[in-house]
Structure formats: C-alpha cells, structure tokens
C-alpha cells in the first residue's frame, strides 16, 4: 500500500510532465475506488488537496425562466426536487436531465420542498402560511397542513416518514402526522423568527435555527427545549445533524460555518472562507466531509475533523442558494439565482 501511495504521490508532484486529465484520473481512482478517507496518509492527503479536483462540473441544467432556491435529492439519488421563484416546484431526473413532475398551488414564495424517505411524496412550505403534501406520481396535492397563521420557513420529514416538522415566523415549531394531516405537538421557541428545523437521525431530537443568531436543541417526546447553542454573530440560516447524530453543523449570514458537539453543545470548529452569507450546508454520508454554498457564488468542501477547506467549486454566476449530496456521496447538486442547477461529480 505504501508503494502505491509513493507512486501516485510521485505522479502528482511531477504534474508538469503529466496532463491534468491524467492526474485527475489517478486521484479520482485513489479517492473514489480505493475509498481512502482524508487523514489516512497525512502527507499524501496534502498532495491530494493541492492538486486534485475531487469534484468537477458534470452537467448544467438550464432553461429555467426564474431563480432557483432549494434543491434536494430523492432517497435513491435518481431525482431532485427544487423550488423556483415562480411559486412552483419541479422534480427532475438527473440522469436524463429532464423534468418528470411539476407542482402548482402555493400562492406565495415557497421556502422549502423535501422528498419523503420512501420517495413517494414531497412536502413543501410557503409564505402563503400553508404546508402541503404532494404525490410524486400524480403531481396532485394530497394533504394541506393548516394551523400556522404565519409564513412557514422550513419543513422536514422525520427519519421514518411518519411525521413532519415545521417552523415559522411565529417562533413555534409544529410536528404533524403525515397520514391524518393533524398537528400533534407544538414547541414554542424564544426567538421571534425560526428559520430552520430538522430531526436528528434517530428522530428523538430537533435542532432549530433562528433570526436572533441562536440554535436550540429539543426533546421531541417531551416537547421541551434542552440546550441553547450560541456563537454565530448573524441569523442562522441552516442547522443539520451529522449522520451519526453526534454533531451539528450550522451556517449563517455571518459568512461562517460552525461545528458543534451535541452532547456538550460545545462549539468545536469555525470554518471561515466564504466571503458572503452561507445559505446551505451538509455533512457527507460518511460524516468526514462538509459541503457548503454561499452568496459568494461558490460551493466549498471542508474536512470535518480539521475544519480545513478542501476544494472550491466555481461555475455559478450568481448567489448559490441551495445544495444537496446524493445518498452515496458521489454527487453534489447546487442551485442558484442564475436560474441553473449544476451537478458535480
């Protein structure tokens, strides 16, 4: 194994004599096929991060007549759902690059759209004060969740798909039963405006993010606030659990990403590099890497352990508003105010 590492390292350091395509092929095979994680061979990793483009632009989906604000993969990684500025939602097959479904009904700005874990439905929320469940196959609205008298900023499914959680400008977190459409629990936050909420991987906790720069951890069964996470100096736009539920990543209008330990609520790392507000952030499925997007028009990859920047993906001509990672970790999808969706592999 050391001999292989030496040979590949030698190729990388003599890049002048090799084409970029050949170097990238070597590195692609090392990282993707051999499945070697960062940190395994420290010196070699330094060479990799210097010379490699771990992800490259694979495809650009164009032709949309309006801005795009949120994008999410289906659980099988074949389709993406995204929100457009004309108050519609679309599903596209990324292999074909073609629209397979379109949803109309919301009367005002749509803030989020997410696939159910089984991929059969999507849920969306809007400034029209409604949450709607749609059938992917028929494109029809199945259930309308009503109860909030304020714009709804975020909605997410529980890991088992039985419930959804939402947050709105009234600072109330609501949990809903998917089958009946009934509200089953309310949790009132201390902030005036909640911007994001998500279940933990085991469904027992929630993390919420707010306009007042604070995040909160919640006990789902008791409906009680557990701990407060403070550190950001601007509104927290997104907060998500790591795949194992032990950590949280957050992003903010203060241009930073922060990593927190759930058990101690201690801030572990501050990731700096973006020159504009950070709009979305997510752990890779293995929990080793983080990806983020920003108003600075870039997507950035970070080492979750060290907090160091690994790669910058450039291509969007305007603010990058959302991103997601395929379930196998091999594909990144991003959306932007430039009215394009870009697929990176």
From TrEMBL:
Transmembrane feature ranges: none
One Pfam family in the UniProt entry: WD40
The WD repeat ranges on this chain: 103-144, 145-186, 187-228, 229-270, 271-312, 313-345
Family matches, as Gene3D superfamilies: YVTN repeat-like/Quinoprotein amine dehydrogenase
Keywords carried by this UniProt record: Repeat, WD repeat
Segments forming domain EML-like second beta-propeller: 116-269
PANTHER family: F-BOX DOMAIN-CONTAINING PROTEIN (PTHR14604:SF4), WD40 REPEAT PF20 (PTHR14604)
Identification of the protein by name: G-protein beta WD-40 repeats containing protein
């Amino acid at each position: 194994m050391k001999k292989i590492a030496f040979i590949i390292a030698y190729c990388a350091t003599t890049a002048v004599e090799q084409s970029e395509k050949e170097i990238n092929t070597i590195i692609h095979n090392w990282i993707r096929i051999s499945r070697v994680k960062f940190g395994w061979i420290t010196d070699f990793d330094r060479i990799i991060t210097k010379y490699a483009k771990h992800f490259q632009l694979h495809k650009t989906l164009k032709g949309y007549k309006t801005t795009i604000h949120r994008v999410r993969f289906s659980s099988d990684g074949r389709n993406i759902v995204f929100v457009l500025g004309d108050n519609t939602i679309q599903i596209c097959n990324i292999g074909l690059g073609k629209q397979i479904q379109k949803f109309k009904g919301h009367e005002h700005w749509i803030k989020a759209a997410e696939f159910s874990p089984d991929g059969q439905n999507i849920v969306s929320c809007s400034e029209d004060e409604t949450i709607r469940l749609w059938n992917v196959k028929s494109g029809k609205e199945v259930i309308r969740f009503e109860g909030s008298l304020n714009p709804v900023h975020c909605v997410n499914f529980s890991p088992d798909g039985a419930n959804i959680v939402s947050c709105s400008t009234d600072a109330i977190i609501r949990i809903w039963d998917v089958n009946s459409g009934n509200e089953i629990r309310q949790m009132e936050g201390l902030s005036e405006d909640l911007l994001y909420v998500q279940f933990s991987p085991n469904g027992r906790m929630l993390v919420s993010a707010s306009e007042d720069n604070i995040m909160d951890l919640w006990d789902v069964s008791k409906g009680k606030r557990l701990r407060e996470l403070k550190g950001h100096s601007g509104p927290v736009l997104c907060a998500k659990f790591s795949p194992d539920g032990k950590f949280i990543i957050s992003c903010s209008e203060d241009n930073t990403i922060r990593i927190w330990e759930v058990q101690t609520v201690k801030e572990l790392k501050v990731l700096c590099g973006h020159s504009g507000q950070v709009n979305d952030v997510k752990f890779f499925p293995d929990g080793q890497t983080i990806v983020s997007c920003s108003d600075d028009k870039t997507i950035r990859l970070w080492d979750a352990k060290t907090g160091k920047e690994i790669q910058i993906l450039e291509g969007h001509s305007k603010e990058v508003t959302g991103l997601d990672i395929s379930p196998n970790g091999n594909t990144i999808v991003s959306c932007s105010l430039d009215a394009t969706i870009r697929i990176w592999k």
